[in-house]
Structures are given as structure tokens and as C-alpha cells.
Amino acid sequence: MLVTGASSGIGFETARALAAAQAHVIIACRSVAKGAESAARIVAHHPHAKVTPIELDLASFKSVRRAVGELPADKIDALICNAGLFANTYQTTEDGIESTVGVCHFGHFLLTQLVKPRLRAAVRARVVMVSSESHRYPSTLKLERFPLAPTSYKPLVSYGQAKLCNVLFANELTRRWAADGITANSLHPGSFIGTDIFRSTVAGKAISVLISPFTKSIAQGAATTVYCAVAPELEGVGGRYFADCREKPMSAGARDADIAARLWTLSEERVSR
Ligand SMILES: NC(=O)c1ccc[n+]([C@@H]2O[C@H](COP(=O)([O-])OP(=O)(O)OC[C@H]3O[C@@H](n4cnc5c(N)ncnc54)[C@H](OP(=O)(O)O)[C@@H]3O)[C@@H](O)[C@H]2O)c1
């Protein structure tokens, strides 16, 4: 299994839970040092865990290509696209894309395309997109305003676009790849879980610290991801949205198959430039 953004937060707990259950988990982290430290922490908790850290910066198509070229597995049963960020100010990836959608969507889009042969090798494989209830705002993905320009940049809108892309991508992937034995679901891990996601804003960080005692723990936040990755009843099931380890209705905008297909085509074009 391959988990992105496993150096901290929900991704770390997801990798830990899967490794504890005997899966070989490849943890993809943009910092080599943090990846090694995370792997060591998991093995310290679970001495028989098989965890392999690899370097992956989703803000760089070059890094994504290199990481897939060096993947230490011919077969991947589950690709868990967990990495994400909330960028309080406008920033771009190495390839010039607004960074929230650049990392959360375009980086994961390229990664998934390149990992496809290894997913196919697993016969029945799953892609799990860690989205958010934030996918409901904006209510639709307006491609003429995607990604946002520096002059119209709004952090919440960009985060919402990125999380809406995660759901649209899972749905479209299932339509296109189910016949190859690959399906994808998306999920909401929980709200205001006390991770580092809102570290870029003082207000976000303060709210997160104040609210987190009343929200899910980070380990509880990983539960729906783990459920989507391994639950036997979800074998061959895709195009659905989950929260609290059960299916939940996705927004109307996320069900728009026309936008999902256009996003796929646009993404193919953007990552191959
Ligand atoms: N926390 C919540 O309440 C909440 C709610 C809804 C959805 N989510 C979603 O849950 C997922 C995990 O977030 P979290 O809350 O666990 O936050 P987090 O602790 O900040 O974890 C985010 C992870 O993504 C990684 N990442 C960021 N940019 C990257 C890049 N360019 N390349 C590779 N990895 C990168 C981070 O790596 P570094 O350690 O190197 O920064 C980190 O491991 C995200 O997709 C988020 O949108 C979280």
C-alpha cells in the first residue's frame, strides 16, 4: 500500500494502522528525514511492521516521476492520496500551478496515472482520495476560475476546489478504470482534527487548538481512510463518498460527470506539458 503525506497527521496514523495490520506500507513524504523518522516511529510501535519511506514532493511533477520510477513494489493494492495543505497566501508549485490544487489534485493525478500499472498488477486495487466536507464550497468547479489566479486568490475557495477535485477524480477514475479492476472512493476524515493542516494561518491554528479537544483524535480521523482501503464490502466499489466509516451523500457539484470528465482531460494535458 502507498500512502502520501504520511510524515504527520492523518497520513501517519493511516500508515501506522495499516502497517500494524501486516500490510507493507510505502510512506511517501516530501522530506526524507521526516519519512525515515515516521517509519522508525511506526516500527517502534509495531516491531514487525514493514514500512518503506520514499521521497515524494507532490508540488513537483519531476519528483512524482522520480518517486514512481523508484517505487519498491511491482504491485500496489491501495493508493491512498492523503497529502494536502491549506495555503493562506498564493503560492505555486514547481510547475507553476496554484499550490493547493497543484499538490492535492494535480500531483496526485499524475501519481495515480503513473502508478496505474502497479494497481492493475494487484488485480483488484483501490484508490482512496482524502477529501473533506470543504468539497461543498464552492458548490461547483468552474473551470474558467480554476486554478485561481493570484489576483482572485481566496484560501478557502482554493482549498474547496482542491477537495472537490478529489471527489470528482475518484468518481471519474472509477468510470474509466473499473473495467481494469481499479476503483476509487473519496472521504471526509472529520472536522478540525488537531493536525498541522491549518498551520499557515494564526486564526486557523488557534481555532484548531481550541476545538480539537472536542473533535476526533488524529487516529480516529484515519479510520475512514483505513475503512475505504481495506473493508471487504468495498471491494470493486467506487465513486462513493464516505465519512465516519459509512457512505454519505456527496455534493451535487461533485456528482457532475461532465465536469469530472473535463477535469480529467484538462489534468492529462497539464501534467504532460
Ligand atoms: N485535519 C482536518 O481536520 C482535516 C479535515 C478534512 C480533511 N483533511 C484532509 O486530510 C488530509 C491530511 O491532512 P492532515 O490534517 O493530516 O494535515 P497535516 O498534518 O498537515 O498533513 C498533511 C500531509 O501532507 C503532506 N504534504 C503537504 N504538501 C506536500 C507536498 N508538496 N508533497 C508531499 N506531501 C505534502 C505534509 O508533509 P510535510 O510534513 O512535509 O508538511 C503532511 O504529511 C489532507 O488531505 C486534508 O485536506 C483534514
Write the layout of secondary structure elements.
Blueprint lengths: L1 E3 L4 H12 L3 E6 L2 H14 L4 E6 L5 H9 L8 E4 L17 H23 L3 E6 L24 H23 L4 E7 L13 H10 L6 H13 L10 E3 L2 E2 L9 H15 L2
Parallel strand pairs: 1-2, 1-4, 2-3, 4-5, 5-6, 6-7
Antiparallel strand pairs: 7-8
Helix pairs in contact: 1-7, 3-4, 4-5, 4-8, 5-8
The chain binds NADP nicotinamide-adenine-dinucleotide phosphate.
Describe the structure.
The protein has 273 residues and is of the alpha/beta class. 44% of the residues lie in helices and 14% in strands. It is built from 8 helices and 8 strands, in the order βαβαβαβαβαβααββα. An 8-stranded mixed sheet has the order 3-2-1-4-5-6-7-8, with helices on both faces. α3 runs parallel beside α4 and α4 runs parallel beside α5. The protein is globular. The model has no long low-confidence stretch (mean pLDDT 96). The structure holds NADP nicotinamide-adenine-dinucleotide phosphate (NAP). NADP nicotinamide-adenine-dinucleotide phosphate binds next to α1. The site of NADP nicotinamide-adenine-dinucleotide phosphate (NAP) has 30 residues, from α1.
Whole-number mean pLDDT: 96
Strand content: 5-15%
Task: Tell me the major beta sheet.
Answer: 8 strands, mixed
In DSSP terms, counting alpha (H) and pi (I) runs of 4 or more, how many helices? 8
- Give the strand order of the largest sheet, numbering strands 1, 2, ... along the chain: 3-2-1-4-5-6-7-8
Quick one: overall form? Answer: globular
Q: End-to-end distance, in Å?
A: 29 Å
Number of strands: 8
State the helical fraction: 40-55%
**Which small molecules are bound?**
NADP nicotinamide-adenine-dinucleotide phosphate
Radius of gyration: 17 Å
Order of helices and strands: EHEHEHEHEHEHHEEH
| Structural class by helix and strand composition | alpha/beta
The residue ranges in which pLDDT falls below 50 over 5 or more consecutive positions are none
